[in-house]
């Protein structure tokens, strides 16, 4: 065996062997077709289904700043009609009822427990019941009556108007409750006169607000009914 044959058969174990390089074809590769399904884009959320709950829920979307502005605006002598909402009429009317309830209890405690030194008188829950159905009934029923007379106004707009004019009753309820309780100390004639003066001021303020917001000759009938409501509140609650 010659030395040339041995050199040809010898393989170096430390030599790195590379595979042969294939020639790059001139034509472009075929387009890649993926068999995996691409993620589909999420579909848009369907609109809310029609219904009373979905319709009236938008009238409760009221910020605290807007509620304060509308409440303060309702105390002016000539207030503009507020934007329609249901939050104000419900909670303002509830505050009027609670003012009557808490006002009587606090003033009765001061008179009986502090001035007279006796056990506080029990609160007449009949007045709380009367104030609840009277204010809520009038606030939610009168817009139906006003809608028949004022064809260009919706029920929600009128309910907002009647709800926000109840703001004046919050302070008046506290004042009338105090005067009513202090009337047990004497001078009932003076107490009755003060109560009627407060009710007259409340009726005048409500009439100005309603007249400036309704702006119609037919509103005179509504103003007369509102005055009767104030008189009924005086007889039933104070």
TrEMBL record:
- MF terms per GO, please? small GTPase binding
* Lineage: superkingdom: Eukaryota
Q: Where is this region: Disordered?
A: 1-45
Q: Could you state one GO cellular component term attached to this entry? A: Golgi apparatus
Which segment of the chain is annotated as a signal peptide? Answer: none
Q: Where is the composition biased (Acidic residues)?
A: 1-10
The answer to whether keyword Lipid biosynthesis applies is no
Q: Which GO terms describe its biological process?
A: vesicle-mediated transport
Q: Does the keyword Membrane apply?
A: yes
List the transmembrane segments.
86-108, 128-146, 158-179, 185-204, 219-237
* Keywords of this entry: Membrane, Transmembrane, Transmembrane helix
Name recorded for this polypeptide: ZYBA0S09-01442g1_1
Q: Which organism is it from?
A: Zygosaccharomyces bailii (strain CLIB 213 / ATCC 58445 / CBS 680 / BCRC 21525 / NBRC 1098 / NCYC 1416 / NRRL Y-2227)
